[in-house]
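Changelog entry

Holo records now carry the ligand SMILES as an explicit input line rather than a separate metadata file. Below, a converted record for S-adenosylmethionine, shown in the new format.
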Amino acid sequence: MLGTLFGIGVGPGDPELLTIKAARILREVSHVFAASSSKNDYSLAFSIVREHLREGTTVEQLAFPMTFKPEQLEDAWQANCEKVSEILEQGKDVAFLTLGDPLIYSTFAYLMRKVRRRLPQVTITVIPAITSFQAAAAYAGEPLVEGEEALTIVSGAKGANRLQDAADAAENVVIMKTYKHFKQILKSIRDQGLEDRFCFVSRCGLDGQIVERDFEKLAAMEQPPNYLSLMIVKKKGMEK
Ligand SMILES: C[S@@+](CC[C@H](N)C(=O)[O-])C[C@H]1O[C@@H](n2cnc3c(N)ncnc32)[C@H](O)[C@@H]1O
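Structure line, unchanged by the conversion:
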């Protein structure tokens, strides 16, 4: 008998935003994994769920390189898949933790595909969660989408090039992973005349939370923002 693989979304950071279902499953599994890298600190995911784990639960990091090089990624995920499969083959249930939701820009998607290929009989159950951008909209008090409007979600990890197309296609845009190319993303916002139609949210629900709408203040920042940062753009303008 194989164990079940649970992809568990732990929410955006505030432990009170963990779902009841995630908490219940975390009490029941014997093995918990989360991805670790220099940026995606696994300890945050563990700190959110720690109080729900029963004594004796094994917690383990899966090394995940912050690279776009396909071979390096492939090797790392094959090794991670082997580790997880080994536990499933012992008949133990495994939880893999993801900040926010497991199917939104999450390493869980890689793992799920690999494990499915390696153990075609395995049961994989995904526990959805509040995403970072839903929490950011809540903290900022900004509706994400209304009436007939559209919302586009893009990644800023490789720069601002997706932002123009996204803003052309939808009334509302969420730009995730804004930390690395922050200046370039701000420039794109200025070039499109959206300086008073966006909101920057960093570390929402966590120490050091920032909700900032002042473009010039952000443009004057000397350091790039925290990894846990995103922007909401609303072409019709912000509520606040
Ligand atoms: C790898 S993605 C994970 C997304 C996550 N699965 C979700 O559903 O929101 C990491 C990005 O999510 C965003 N993010 C995650 N947690 C956040 C938080 N507490 N505050 C602001 N942004 C956050 C940031 O844009 C960060 O670069």
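Spot-checked after migration. The first strand starts at residue 5 and ends at 9. The chain has a mean pLDDT of 94.
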